[in-house]
């Protein structure tokens, strides 16, 4: 075999069945092959397992999907190239012309854009509500046939906690599907509740290191099977190397979450007592209006703390003065992050919807990382001291 042929047909190396790698290899291959056309046809007919093309399925992606499904307490999962892709592909696959969906002012802006702009172009109607008004949610579902209720809990960034049990019961009673963006709560929360589809940005806490992007749609085998063909054709496939890195990140998921949530609670308690802080939003505080609901629904209160600065404090100066909190979008990294309100303003909302969202130019969102808790508290103290208007 000449050189040009050999480099394209390298020697095959088989790993003995009793000599497995401890960490699964990355299947960095777009294409898979069988020894015969007959076996390929069996796969096409569903008569055997296997892989053909990585946009459809890949062993590295499949390992991640099965891990995520187990963590969320569901049967199956489909991973995507980003969290936004997970939300949008789920909605595109679920909705058709003439359908109606319920969405909320207190949710991720790209999700609102998807429903209000893109789906609207194809004849999908929507109702915008506040996630705090469960009575209005129930009344809307009772009065108008609805395909899906799309919401998140806790919400971004004010950490409002949805009454998931009531929302899910109302949706079930009126034939609507529930789609919960569970990114803030995490894969270890809400799995016991009656949700049809969970969507996650794996970019955040699942991967945990701020260096890869990914998304997931998690639910029953039956429901995901009905979506899979649409998702494959839309093509927002996760790369195998990225899937490997997210799978690796999950090994420390629970250690990270425990540490970050513990530090977040300590920081929330500190800020609540500070004279330059007007209000703190954190479900773990008894002052949070849905504290009891959060305690029933969640195993912890998360790693995000949001608060309102007092009027005499300059928000930009406060953020600029922080030394350990990087001014950055996103959350869930090992590094602590800060987002001031002027970078999160919901400019797509009308006046009433902005009131529901509740974000002001004095709102500050912190994503708590893995730094020493005392160091983070000291950093917040010096930044507050340096930030008078």
Outline, from the CA principal axes?
globular
CATH class of the largest domain: Alpha Beta
Q: Report the CATH architecture of the largest domain.
A: 3-Layer(aba) Sandwich
Number of strands: 12
Instruction: Determine Rg (CA atoms, Å).
Output: 23 Å
Walkthrough of the structure:
The chain is of the alpha/beta class and 389 residues long. The chain folds into 2 domains: 58-250, 3-Layer(aba) Sandwich (Aspartate Aminotransferase, domain 2), CATH 3.40.640; 253-385, Aspartate Aminotransferase, domain 1, CATH 3.90.1150.10. It contains 14 helices and 12 strands. The strands form 2 sheets. A 7-stranded mixed β-sheet has the order 1-7-6-5-4-2-3, sandwiched between helices. The protein has a 5-stranded mixed β-sheet with strand order 8-9-12-11-10, covered by helices on one side. Strand 4, helix 7 and strand 5 form a beta-alpha-beta unit. The protein is globular, with a radius of gyration of 23 Å. It starts with a helix and ends with a helix.
């Amino acid at each position: 075999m000449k050189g040009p042929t050999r480099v394209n047909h390298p020697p095959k190396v088989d790993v003995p069945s009793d000599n497995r790698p401890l960490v699964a290899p990355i299947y960095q291959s777009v294409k898979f092959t069988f020894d015969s056309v007959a076996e390929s046809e069996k796969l096409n007919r569903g008569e055997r397992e296997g892989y053909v093309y990585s946009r459809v399925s890949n062993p590295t992606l499949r390992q991640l999907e099965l891990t995520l499904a187990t963590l969320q307490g569901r049967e199956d999962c489909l991973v995507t190239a980003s969290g936004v892709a997970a939300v949008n592909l789920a909605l595109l696959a679920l909705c058709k012309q003439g359908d109606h969906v319920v969405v909320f002012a207190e949710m991720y802006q790209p999700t609102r854009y998807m429903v209000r702009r893109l789906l609207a172009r194809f004849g999908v109607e929507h109702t915008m509500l506040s996630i705090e008004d469960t009575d209005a949610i129930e009344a809307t579902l009772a009065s108008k046939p609805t395909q899906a209720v799309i919401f998140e809990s806790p919400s971004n960034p004010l950490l409002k906690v949805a009454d998931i049990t009531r929302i899910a019961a109302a949706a079930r009673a009126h034939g609507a599907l529930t789609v919960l963006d569970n990114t803030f709560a995490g894969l270890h929360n809400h799995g016991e509740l009656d949700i049809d589809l969970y969507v996650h940005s794996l970019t955040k806490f699942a991967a945990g290191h701020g260096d890869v992007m990914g998304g997931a749609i998690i639910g029953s085998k039956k429901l995901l099977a009905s979506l899979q063909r649409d998702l494959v054709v839309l093509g927002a496939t996760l790369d195998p190397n990225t899937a490997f890195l997210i799978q690796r990140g999950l090994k420390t998921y629970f250690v990270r979450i425990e540490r970050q949530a513990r530090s977040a609670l300590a920081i929330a308690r500190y800020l609540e007592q500070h004279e330059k802080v007007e209000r703190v939003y954190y479900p773990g505080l008894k002052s949070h209006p849905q504290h009891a609901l959060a305690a029933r629904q969640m195993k912890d209160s998360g790693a995000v703390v949001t608060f309102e600065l007092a009027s005499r404090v300059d928000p930009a100066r406060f953020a600029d003065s922080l030394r350990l909190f990087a001014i950055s979008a996103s959350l869930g990294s090992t590094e602590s992050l800060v987002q001031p309100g002027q970078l999160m303003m919901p400019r797509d909302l009308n006046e009433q919807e902005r009131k529901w969202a509740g974000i002001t130019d004095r709102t500050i969102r912190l994503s708590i990382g893995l730094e020493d808790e005392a160091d983070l508290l000291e950093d917040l103290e010096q930044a507050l001291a340096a930030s008078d208007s």
